Amino acid sequence: MEKIQALIIGSGPAGYTAAIYLARANMQPVIYEGIQPGGQLTTTTLIENYPGFAHGIDANELMSAMRQQAENLGTQIRTGSVTKVDLSQRPFRVEIEGSTTIEAESLIIATGATAKYLGLPSETKFRGLGVSACATCDGFFYRKRDVAVVGGGDTACEEATYLASLCRQVYMIVRKPFLRASQAMQQRVFDTPNIEVLFEHNTAEVLGDDSGVTGVRVRKTDGTERTLDVAGLFLAIGHHPVTELFDGQLKLDEEGYIVTEPGTSKTSVEGVFAAGDVKDPHYRQAIAAAGSGCIAALDCERWLRR
């Protein structure tokens, strides 16, 4: 059976950064990239808020460069997904694609979190072409234009108020006759003149052409419909951490995110570390994920050397 000193599950900024640090420390890291090499970042286009690129950088180009850097330093990068883990014994036993089993002395989990979408075919069609799940990432591209936000919780209100500082008009599409957000966040929305809240509305269809989103058709609970002439649609209905593999083996919070010791990447199992969005329900930014990948690698290296 193959034995690996430092195994990283998942790619993206967290996984690749962890690999870069571990490779430079001669820890011989191995990455299994999972079903989406490069992570969630590859679903967007131009990134303008990642430090070091004066004119921004294409998301796929950035992730390709990180991957190549990790590989050049000695990381083994493998295609395929981890389908089962056993953290009850050390070395940890890890199953790949339901067939091959390997053993790992240490484990860094960087499986990320996926944004929740509505499930509309038109939404999928325009993902990355006007449909986004991150206002902080993509809001800049819609300056002085009209956009819509789906959701009624704290995240949706935060996204809407952020976008209102950039955009001409922001529509909030809310299923219920009320906002679920905290009172302070609700008040911030109602005090912002260029936010219009559409209560008891659902998104029926995303409209667009070859250039991207041109509008959104919404349907009220009484059956009436209207079209919003918007250039962007932002989903703010939550994220789902990819932690099913670790349920019952690691300590998770009520939303399924991996719980780590404050100020570290250490999980509830010694020798297992977490990095990136899989442990971060708040920020979900590439630079934050990369930083946590560095932390996880340093924690992992120190633990292995001990």
- Tally the helices: what do you get? 7
Question: Separation of termini?
Answer: 24 Å
Helix content: 10-25%
The CATH class assignment of the largest domain is: Alpha Beta
Look at the structure and give the mean pLDDT: 94
- The structure class reads alpha/beta
What is the percentage of strand-forming residues?
25-35%
Number of strands: 19
Backbone shape = elongated
As residue ranges, the low-confidence spans are none
Name the CATH architecture of the largest domain: 3-Layer(bba) Sandwich
Following the backbone from N to C, one meets helices and strands in this order, namely EHEEEHEEEEEHEHEHEHEEEEEEEH
Radius of gyration: 21 Å
Indicate how many domains the architecture comprises: 2
CATH fourth-tier homologous superfamily of the largest domain: FAD/NAD(P)-binding domain
CATH topology of the largest domain: FAD/NAD(P)-binding domain
Major beta sheet, specifics?
A: 7 strands, mixed
Task: Give the helices and strands, then pairings.
Blueprint: E1 3-9, H1 12-24, E2 29-32, E3 46-47, E4 57-58, H2 59-72, E5 76-78, E6 82-86, E7 92-96, E8 100-109, E9 113-115, H3 121-125, E10 131-132, H4 135-138, E11 146-150, H5 154-164, E12 169-174, H6 183-190, E13 195-199, E14 201-209, E15 212-220, E16 225-228, E17 232-235, E18 239-241, E19 272-274, H7 286-305
Parallel strand pairs: 1-2, 1-8, 2-5, 8-19, 10-17, 11-12, 11-17, 12-13
Antiparallel strand pairs: 3-4, 6-7, 7-8, 9-18, 14-15, 15-16
Helix pairs in contact: 1-2, 1-7, 5-6
